[in-house]
Amino acid sequence: MSQKPHLDREHGQHLFRQMLRIRQFEARCAELYQAQKIRGFLHLYDGEEAVAVGVMQALDERDAVVATYRDHGHALARGLPMGALMAEMYGKVEGCARGRGGSMHFFDRRRRFYGGNAIVGGGLPLAIGIAMADKQLHPGAVTACFFGEGAAGEGAFHESINLAELWDLPVLFVCENNLYAMGMPLELAEAETDIFRKAAAYRTPTEAVDGMNPVVVEAAARKAVASIRDGNGPYFLECRTYRFRAHSMFDAQLYRTREEIELWKERDPIPRTQKWLEENHMISPEELREIEGQVEAEIEEAVAFAEEGTWESVEDLERFVLMDEVSE
Amino acid sequence: MNDRSAREGMNRMTYREACRHAIRDALINDARTFLMGEDVGLYGGCYAVSKGLLDEFGPERIRDTPLAEGAFVGAGIGAAMAGLRPIVEIMTCNFSLLALDQIMNNAATIPHMSGGQFAVPLVIRMATGAGRQLAAQHSHSLEGWFAHIPGLKVLAPGTVEDARYMLKAALADPNPVLIFEHIVLYNAEGELDPDVMEVDIARAKMRRPGRDVSILAYGNSLPKALAAAETLAEEGIDAEVVDLRVLRPLDNATIFETVARTRRCVIVDEGWKSGSISAEIAARLSEELFFELDAPIRRICSREAPVPYAAHMEEAALPQTAQIADAARNLVKPR
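^ Those are the sequences you sent over. The predicted structure of the assembly is below.
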């Protein structure tokens, strides 16, 4: 696989389409939350789409993904069916985790999606183990592990990066630095606010990139994944990004200003990519309308799938507490 | 078969050697299995369990870790989810608190929360218990805490035979299994029956039959319970001793059967009494066997304080043979 993204018409539109799918899907999620179809915690990825979409371009089927509780973008970009995600948030048994995990805990064994983890930093040690297994059983496979900058405060972050480097493990660490750990501003939480420097202290190759640009993220991820597949051990990408919406549906956003949000919105990866495609004659108005229509149709279909879904029998409440077998 | 010691007629071994043989067998029998933990390699294991294994299996399969319980336990979980069969050693259960998030939020939770997509076939071994004057931070008995958690299996070998064969059963299990090895038992010696080469990790086990009272114990409380039964026998009291050995899921059938028969019960638990596994067992007995009982259930547990260093204080803090015998005696022949 080439290290540089080949930015032809098709690929440029693909990046745009993937980001738009996430944005529009989540817009519908927010509506459905207000309508009380979706409950619990709902953490939206608005603004950060370029990170998941960019990174996933560098991965293929053999690779594994460990996500956070803000996992809608990772799951969609990884190829989990939108209907299964919506059904999961409806709490239906047709959901990607039988309705047991909800928004924060998407899983898909077939697509090597090891779950949205709702303990900050909790997924990093898992990624270490998955990479250990892959190194022995499936050489060449990479585990992409996503986490926010808040994870840098946790011991698990430091312990895991150390192990990955010490043991030369094929892990791509992807820090989604959106500047706030829930409401805690980065500069109030960390003495060193350049997160990548912490990873560099463990001798891991690092790069900090504009997380609002899918092409930049993709290029960096391709370079990182190529290095990992070549057997050079882990790689750490810090993607500087921003979430446009509240942390969750319960957040009054007292910790940041409207002006700051508006400033970041000028860098919104979706209109920015659209404009770039238009200026370079890589998308026609007809194609744009077609993509928007397809995304809308996919969302409608996903909502219908969730609506038509069924409830898991209460009889099955204890099912899978203990497993009967390990599926290989 | 793979039990070389039995074949060579070396049936007598220590609990420590039994643990080592079990790990060695596991590494020989399954290329997916490896041992990972603090000082398991070069040092040979804090309690010398893995001594010699690094030379035989190399550093990939006897993997020394830094002091990072959360990360290496989590790595064991991830490796199990992705196809390996790790044995993770936590030097002592006291340090397992640093990995509690991974054990509870990931190992115990993900199989269920993923709708059955991801099993976690992982074994975590840890040393537990008091009795070596190691003071409070190295003397906890936390197996009862872990037994609270759905999704885990919790084992406590109290005999050389169980130390020898529980690991094999635990590795064959598709679930995360925690094995608590008692620090005082590592030097205990026992004779292995060459005809027995496996252990049923679903069942408790009667260690001494009796008619008058059931003493339920596990880990290092088991030898104390057996000693108490000997004392009682001299007085004409016939105590039955049941080795709980599986703390989650509890073997209700065996527990209820013995207590229904003797109609009296003493539970011995090195954990603190409040909220302990002994409390759970007593509650189940009162729910299910209330009308079969001839006497109140008695519990001998650790005193409700951090375990002190000084020998006389530590001894006073832990369940002892005389207390167990007294409790049983008073149930059978009330003063």
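Chain A has one domain: 9-304. Chain A touches chain B through 48 residues (CB under 8 Å).

Shout if you want it in another format.
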